Amino acid sequence: MKRIEPIVKELLELYPKIRDDDFYLIGSVYFMLAPEIKSKSFLDIIKNHSFYGLPSFESITRARRKVQAENEEL
Fold this sequence. Notes:
Layout: H1 4-14, H2 22-33, H3 42-47, H4 57-70
């Protein structure tokens, strides 16, 4: 999770829309960690998230909650 928190914080700072939309946040984190998946289908990404080295949805949303708790402006 320590690897994900700085990415989540950066995205929350850059894109206010992400603050209220977990799916947008998850997609943005995934594309940041593995840009090569942009041409893949959602089903392929979900089925192969371990292969691509992507964290779970819950890890990303947990990181968001932690970052927002520490930074109320986000």
